[in-house]
Amino acid sequence: LMPFPTIEFRTHTNCNNWGYIYYSKPVVHINNKCMIDEVIRMRRQKIRDVSFGSLHELSHLFDKPDWNFDGEALANIKIPFILYEQGFKVYLNKDVELNYYNYADELYKEHGRLDNIKGLFCSSLAAKITEITYTIGWEPVSKTFKNFPNINSQSKVEKFEIFIQKLTEYSNKDVFKMFTDAEWDSVISNLSK
């Protein structure tokens, strides 16, 4: 279910980021040059590419700030669900096609595994959670997003631990054990910054 009846895209020439949103407002702001490049590339390729950047920004509309342990990771975690449900493809770069089944591997190639991050922490964490969905499925993730408690006062680490606890509860599998010690330490270290 969409959190808003309509969503507006606005492009800006003076936007320093690829894009951004403000919580609770149905407007996605995107760098004008990035969006033009994206649309030209998508038209040229003539595939069902729905734009990694656009999906990433749209997925922020579903963020709940009171339990957000890492907004960028959560946005990237929502993308493979859309790829899985709709059969869409997105391109991480100009030549790297992503679908649900290669999403984790391709993010690992680009950003490294959690125990050896060479790019963005949020992408390595999203890859790990996606890898976990290959074992537990999407239903536990969906239930976790729908039923996550209001935990506004906890730290990012505590919020993440509750997220993993809920995945464990809804999947009946110990998701904590799906992280190596080095991966878990990396998550805790990055969320503690």
What does this structure look like?
By secondary structure, this protein is mostly helical. Helix content is 51%, strand content 9%. It has eight helices and five strands, in the order βββαααββααααα. Strands 1-3-2 form a three-stranded mixed beta sheet. It has a two-stranded antiparallel ribbon with strand order 4-5. Strand 4 and strand 5 form a beta hairpin. The longest helix is centred in the middle third of the chain and has 16 residues, at 71-86. It is globular, with a radius of gyration of 17 Å.
Strand-pairing-aware structural class: mainly alpha
Separation, N- and C-terminal Cα atoms: 33 Å
Q: Can you write the helix and strand succession as a string?
A: EEEHHHEEHHHHH
What portion of residues belong to β-strands?
A: 5-15%
- The whole-number mean of residue pLDDT values reads 85
Main sheet: strands, sense, barrel: 3 strands, mixed
